[in-house]
Write a structure and sequence with these properties.
Blueprint: E1 8-12, E2 21-25, H1 35-50, H2 60-82
Antiparallel strand pairs: 1-2
């Protein structure tokens, strides 16, 4: 486009499982706001749109830690019942 200027905010490393990068096109009215406020608003939008879709997948390390904790709990319970 000739004679058109758009300001864009690029957020990399959004810590989202869905978005790798996010691009935000700023309105002309946003020029009087500080850059930190704009980035906070962009991060808020990303957080609001990704929290519903996140699924926590257990890693192998998590499963092993759970199994060890369960076995230790059973052994302690058995030892206390014998005393």
């Amino acid at each position: 486009m000739r004679g058109c200027q758009r300001k864009i905010i690029l957020l990399k490393g959004t810590d989202s499982q869905i978005f790798d990068e996010a691009y935000f096109l700023l309105r002309r009215e946003s020029e009087d706001r500080g850059q930190e406020e704009i980035v906070r608003e962009a991060q808020r939008i990303i957080d609001r749109n990704t929290t519903r879709r996140r699924r926590h997948h257990l890693s192998r390390r998590d499963v092993i830690a759970f199994a060890i904790g369960t076995v230790c709990g059973i052994v302690c319970g058995l030892l206390l019942s014998l005393l």
